[in-house]
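Usage

Read records sequentially. Each one opens with the input sequence:
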Amino acid sequence: MLMILTVFLSNNEQILTEVPVTPETTCRDVVEFCKEPGEGSCHLAEVWRGNERPIPFDHMMYEHLQKWGPRREEVKFFLRHEDSPTENSEQGGRQTQEQRTQRNVTNVPGEKRTENGVSE
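and closes with the structure output:
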């Protein structure tokens, strides 16, 4: 079983590549296929109806494409030449210290700010 995934390599949709996708193909495989040798961090993003979403590196692309069903023609995939906003290749999706800190900070009007349950 083989599908062909069209990936746009720039925002203007004029430069593209076609990637063969099998049931074993991950998003990381697609990114590696599309980026230039020696190029730094990149990620794959899907755009549907004006909404862009980064795809996790460990995502199985064949299954992902099948889930779109008949709407698959409405979805465009772009190689973004920057780190994924949700993960990078070294961290594999783990949160950064800044993200953990932001989640654990509580601001309550009229009270002292607390971080991880400790008042400042």
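Summary fields computed downstream for this record:
- The first strand starts at residue 3 and ends at 8.
- The chain has three helices and eight strands.
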